[in-house]
Design goal:
Elements (H helix, E strand, L loop, with lengths): L9 H7 L1 H16 L1 E2 L9 H7 L10 E2 L2 E2 L5 H18 L3 E3 L5 H12 L5 E5 L15 H5 L1 E5 L10 H11 L3 E5 L9 H11 L2 E5 L4 H5 L12 E5 L10 E5 L4 H12 L5 H14 L2 H23 L3 E2 L8 E5 L7 H10 L2 E2 L1 E3 L13 E5 L1 H6 L6 H13 L11 H12 L16
Parallel strand pairs: 1-13, 5-6, 5-7, 7-8, 8-9
Antiparallel strand pairs: 2-3, 4-10, 9-10, 11-12, 12-15, 14-15
The chain binds pyridoxal-5'-phosphate.
Length: 433
């Protein structure tokens, strides 16, 4: 066996495992060939990918910098300290834990730090935009804790703060969760803080989707209001797949113990180093411009989709995502999702608030602009994106607006994205291109 390279080595992989090498290349081509509108996805930089493919992946480092279970941690310690310092600086947080393997792992640690089994937990209901880890029955959060869901207002389709207050007074939850996975509006953290203080609850903001927009100062930060903020690092923050917890000093010890040793053992040091890279990228003026463009693009896309009869829930968006009701086009979200996928437009079906249709075939779709914006698409491109979505959703239907096949729309999509590939393909020396 030859000496392994220190970093990603594309030609070696092609020789050693052509099947997997082929899959990696096919995935790159898939990303480059379509419109990636799944709101939780983004394209990480070559620098982030390089660190993910590095020898840091090998090190066992249970514990925290300066206090590890194993020897040989001096370099991974330096990486973790950088990640923590950069996150503290970027978000103005007192304390940061960068070890959670994912958003769900970060959330598990928050429950572990602050709640006991069966405690009531107040969170946005799943069909109104909440996340699986906010009390869904099929998730540990719903199995081990008592979910008390709040809703959006039927008319405004925005969070009903009066209901949040009422439920908080009635159920006296240990934790109030503020955060969502398919809710397009800013949340009023000040009101949540007031309600939490009134009943002496922990205010936890799950900013998994929006933390990149916070980093780029495109939306207000939850950090000054919350006891604890969890986030993923791979959505709008555009880093490696993983999670992160930010908290007030008084909760630091409880959070750190809840991550290790309570819910995780060895941290992924390559991912933590890649988080450091992403956090440095997110602190740049370029990233600030990016975050603002993401929101601008989402607003433009929302307006353009509305023009095609896809009503944006709550009338629009303040963030990177839009949830639209597609029922006026004579279809449902599942059908729209499948048709769009056949045209290489990747988006997901989504329930809308008070959805008359069942979860498997809900009334809505969800789209996000984080990935498209990374590729360099701007405001003016969003009407084309909306045209393509509308064409795919209605193709071949009675009363259709556009009489073209899904294959023809797929061709138009590939033409549209051709000069803005997610990842460069020329002169490929490594998986990063
Ligand atoms: C995506 C998401 C998570 C989970 O993140 P994973 O990394 O997939 O575990 C948690 N909370 C919210 C609000 C999310 O949107």
């Amino acid at each position: 066996m030859s000496t392994p390279q220190w970093g990603p080595n594309w030609s070696a992989l092609e020789e050693i495992d052509p099947e997997i090498a082929g899959i990696v290349l096919s995935e790159r081509d898939r990303l480059n060939g379509g419109l990636q509108l799944i709101a939780s996805e983004n394209f990480t930089s070559p620098a982030v990918l390089a660190v993910l493919g590095s020898t840091l992946s090998n090190k066992y480092a249970e514990g925290y910098p300066g206090n590890r279970f194993y020897q040989g941690c001096e370099f991974v310690d330096a990486a973790e300290r950088l990640a923590v310092d950069r996150a503290k600086e970027l978000f103005g947080a007192n304390h940061v834990n960068v070890q959670p393997h994912s958003g769900a792992s970060a959330n598990l640690a928050v429950y572990a730090a602050f709640a006991q089994p069966d405690d009531p937990v107040l969170a946005l209901s799943l069909p109104h935009g909440g996340h699986l880890t906010h009390g869904a029955r099929i998730n540990f959060s719903g199995a081990w804790f008592t979910a008390v869901p709040y809703s959006v207002n039927r008319d405004t389709e925005m969070i009903d703060y009066d209901e949040v207050r009422e439920l908080a007074r009635l159920h006296q939850p240990r934790i109030i969760v503020c955060g969502a996975t398919s809710y397009s509006r800013e949340m009023d953290y000040a009101i949540f803080r007031e309600i939490a203080d009134e009943i002496d609850a922990i205010l936890w903001v799950d900013a998994a989707h929006i933390m990149g927009l916070v980093a780029g100062q495109a939306i207000p930060s939850p950090v000054p209001y919350a006891d604890v903020v969890t986030t993923t690092t791979h959505k709008t923050l555009r880093g490696p797949r993983g999670g992160m917890i930010l908290c007030r000093t008084e909760h630091a010890a409880a959070i750190d113990r809840a991550v290790f040793p309570f819910s995780q053992s060895g941290p992924m040091m390559h991912t933590i180093a890649a988080k450091a890279v992403a956090l440095q990228e997110a602190a740049t003026p370029d990233f600030r411009t990016y975050a603002h463009s993401v929101v601008e693009n989402a607003r433009a896309l929302s307006t353009a989709l509305e023009g095609h009869g896809m009503r944006p829930i709550s009338g629009g968006t303040d963030t990177h995502l839009v949830v639209c009701d597609v029922s006026a086009l004579g279809t449902d979200g599942a059908d729209a999702e499948t048709r769009c996928a056949q045209a290489n437009i990747l988006l997901n079906k989504n329930a809308i608030p008070f959805d008359p249709l069942p979860p498997r075939t809900p009334s809505g779709i969800r789209v996000g602009t984080a990935a498209l914006t990374t590729q360099g698409f701007g405001r003016d491109d969003m009407s084309v994106v909306a045209d393509l979505i509308a064409a795919a959703v209605t193709a071949g239907k009675p009363g259709e607006r556009v009489d073209v096949s899904l294959a023809e729309i797929a061709r138009q999509v590939s033409e549209f994205v051709a000069d803005k590939p997610a990842y460069a393909v020329e002169g490929i020396q490594s998986l990063q291109g």
